[in-house]
Amino acid sequence: MAERNERIARVVHDLVADNLDAIVCAIPANVLMLSGYWPVVGTAVAIVTRDGVCVALAPEDERELAARGWAEVRTYQPGSLGQLINVTTAITDPLKRLGDELGLARARIGFEAGPFYEPSSYAAMHFFGGGMLPLLAHALPEAVKVPADELLSRLKAVKTPLEIGRIRTACRIAADAYQTGAGRLVPAMAETEAAASFQAPLSIVGTGFDGAARAGGFVSCMSGANSAQAFGAFARSRGTAITTNEPILVHCNSYADGYWTDITRTFCLGEIPPDLRLVYDAVLAARQAALLAVGDGARAATVDKAARDVLAQSGYGADFKHGTGHGVGFAAINHLALPRIHPASEDVLETGNVFNIEPAVYIEGKGGVRHCDVVAITEQGVEVLTPFQSEIGQLLLGGVSNVMPPG
User: Maximum distance among all alpha carbons in the chain?
Assistant: First the structure.
């Protein structure tokens, strides 16, 4: 209860500071942050008032999941055998009644205006057309609607101890998946099969782990020369066979009840060539330098520079083609999520920040090596939430010794 109250207190503080009476959100990551409930398909709404009242308005069939959060739960029927209606129509009257009950008919209401990056919570997701504004225009026509994306971004940047604990759980599930997947890598395995070996445990092990009701994620494997393209906007596994003596870059975005990870490890089967060993050494040294620069009050750009300087001194400066990190937890791959660990960032790190550190080297035609950790700044100091497989000996797997016995 205390940790629930801490999140609500932070929201109320920012509502007062921004002269808002309430905030209303439907993007699942925002609903999770406000209410502790991660909507399944994006058809739930969360409201927090400056009086500290927190309500989740969810479809009736999500009641059980919604009750896992800290908000008061109200439900509505998005459809029935008696009529075919769209979600906006179904939720408008329940939202109007709730707004009237909370005294928001003529209030100043913050809403999400977008654009956004949003992790997928299901095979398909619903987004209210034009963001929340058209819905609020129907449900609360006399209220003053104020875009609140900056406020939401600030709130999501600083996690409560409860939220860091949930992210820690997601990272522990991913650690098991990485250990399992690494043990299954063998020469001639397709990248797609390799990725599946890491991905399956995310749900098999994750569901029920530390109370998680929903766990899973996305994994890609890019090996050999393909791994040199892993700096792009998205990663994809191919049917390419992994081979010995080349990098095998495994990237994971996984979740536990809506709290996300962003993790990469680069393995090698067999003997590592001397030139590739130099790349591994440089990337791991850059990781260490960045971690040493992290702390409450540190500049995000300074952390980026610490990693970038090591790679430049090793001769790989031009091969590090993206920022060193970004906010993680409510987001998986949003490079603008606070704090932004980037050369141009003006962000200052603070307790409660959770972000990734991902130094990398990508050499066209040869391959790429990236090591991506999730890091939290807590009251006790800097914590690496993904401390597994972070030494060179744990990434070099030895090739044929990894072959599993028949049957």
Answer: 70
